[in-house]
Design brief:
This protein is an alpha+beta fold. The protein is built from two helices and five strands, in the order H-H-E-E-E-E-E. The C terminus is likely disordered.
């Protein structure tokens, strides 16, 4: 019973780490794309690696970068957990570059 509780606890910690690493990877690689016009997916791989993860997937969709970061666990039946980050489907940002636009699902305010 104690081993099961420890396994669940490890999975929860790893899932939180994956969520944080994916958030940071998506934001940082988008900044690379926006500010330097560099290879956002190459930057995403480096960033994920530095946070103890593995870049499982990366896709540049216009000005958005969508990444999936996997973090290894210490649980025998679940080798890794992963999180996907990027702009959600159906989300549209209204405005011009450099301005604060309204954010909404498919409509502008």
């Amino acid at each position: 019973l104690l081993a099961m509780a420890a396994s669940v606890g490890n999975l929860m910690v790893c899932q939180a780490r994956a969520r944080s690493a994916a958030d940071l990877t998506a934001l940082s690689s988008a900044a690379v794309l926006w500010h330097t016009q560099g290879d956002a997916c190459a930057a995403a791989g480096t960033i994920a690696d530095r946070h103890g993860g593995r870049l499982a997937s990366c896709r540049v969709d216009g000005e958005d970068v969508v990444v999936t970061v996997a973090i290894p666990t210490r649980v025998p039946f679940a080798g890794e957990v992963s999180e996907r980050r990027g702009r959600p489907r159906g989300m549209r940002i209204a405005g011009r570059p450099g301005s604060l636009g309204a954010v909404g699902r498919g409509r502008s305010r």
